[in-house]
Amino acid sequence: TTRWKIQENGRWNNQAIQEAAELLRRGEAVSFPTETVYGLGADATREEAVAKIFAAKGRPQDNPLIAHIAGREQLYQLVERPLPYVEKLLDAFAPGPLTLVLPSNGACAENVTAGLPTIGVRIPDHPVAYELLKACGLPVAAPSANLSGKPSPTTADHVWADLNGKIAGLLDGGPTGVGLESTVVDCTEEIPIILRPGGITREQLEKVIGKVMVDPALAGENDRPKAPGMKYRHYSPEVPLWLVKGNIQAIQDLIDREKQNGKRVGLLAGTALSGLLDADHKMELGENIAEIAANLYDGLRTFKEGDIDLIICEAFPEEGLGQAVMNRLKKAASDYVLLD
Ligand code: TXA
Ligand code: MG
After folding, report:
1. What tens digit of pLDDT does each residue of 231-290 get?
2. Which of 83, 121, 180, 193, CA to CA, is 20 to 30 A from 102?
């Protein structure tokens, strides 16, 4: 795996962009930063190039990929008959952390869409992603650049840890900004439907286009405490994570009880709560929900098997960006513990 730094001695490394673009044109898989998380890209028009993404990640074949493009003109080369509100969404949020699911015109390879009649398209808001997409001139299929099941990568080191030796290249553009994946919106119906909460909130979307629905599969999903031992195949840290809601004393009592059971307990929480609790290791996620989102995946990767036996993680209010944060945490958690 070739690893390029995008800033060398304070200078933009255009050579790296050109080399990475050339690898993409040759049908290789290359990781690059976006404003959300690092992506693992390949030429979306070539089946055998896209297959390298699935192989490197160990990703199930039935999970479709997002086609990344440099600008709006390219969108109309991939999709058919977008509904009128799609223009409004593009005006307001492109480039940005929003993926539009639209009727595919079949220009992308079949394994990008997993055989669906629709395709997810996104214009990322990151200078490295933009320059790379422009330089290669292709739609680039890209899932998050992590091993399937692990937390998404928000730094080049995360990508390196998961995929070194399995991909052709990695463009190191530093830490990503938003830190959570894009909002995925099904735009094939009169009223759009959020399939995955993300960097753009439902409130932001509704301000621009009016009513937006949320996939019923999201609401209710893992809302109640689950039977212990239930396994998740998403965003999973190396050690079990309990998502915990309750007053400070109740959370401290839970930590102390688990420590008495011989467990080394790691705490993942916002600055306020972190300062009030005592644990074997603490990872402070930040002062506000934007900081918490940006640091979340790094936090999930911080606690290593051998150092820590259990992660206790604060449950955050499910408003605004908190909806996306809690969506990921519920998938990462092996239990959701409601105290008091
Ligand atoms: O922020 C992001 O979206 C990042 C960066 C790299 O752009 N990408 C990303 O890709 O998160 P991935 O593959 O990890 O997640 C793509 C999500 C999946 O939940 C997938 O099921 C959904 O988008 N998706 C893609 N195409 C779809 C389609 N045609 N219909 C419904 N869902 C689709
Ligand atoms: Mg992913």
Report:
1. 345 788 899 999 999 999 999 999 999 999 999 999 999 999 999 999 999 999 999 999
2. 180
**Closest to 209 in 3D by CA, of 227, 183, 244:** 183
In sequence order, what DSSP letters do the residues of 97-160 get, joined into one string?
SEEEEEEB-S-S-HHHHTT-SEEEEE----HHHHHHHHHH-S-EE--BSS-TTSPPPSSHHHHH
Kindly state the tokens that stand for 276.
């009030």
Residue ranges of E strands in 192-304 = 193-196, 213-214, 241-245, 265-269, 281-284
**pLDDT, average across residues 41-59:** 97
Distance 66 CA to ligand 1 centre (A): 5
CA of 181 to the centre of ligand 1 (A): 8
Six-digit token pair at 54? 């699935």
Residue having the nearest C-alpha atom to atom 24 of ligand 1:
64
Q: Taking the CA atoms of the chain, what radius of gyration do you get in angstroms?
A: 20
* ipTM > 0.95, yes or no: yes
Tokens of 15: 């050579």
pLDDT at 33: 98
Structure pTM?
A: 0.95
For ligand 1, say whether the CB of 144 is within 6 Å of any of its atoms: yes
Structure-block tokens of residue 84: 């009128």
Spatial distance between the Cα atoms of 269 and 289, rounded to a whole number of angstroms: 11
Packed helices 289-302 and 322-332: angle between N→C axes, nearest 10 degrees: 20
d(CA 239, CA 227): 17
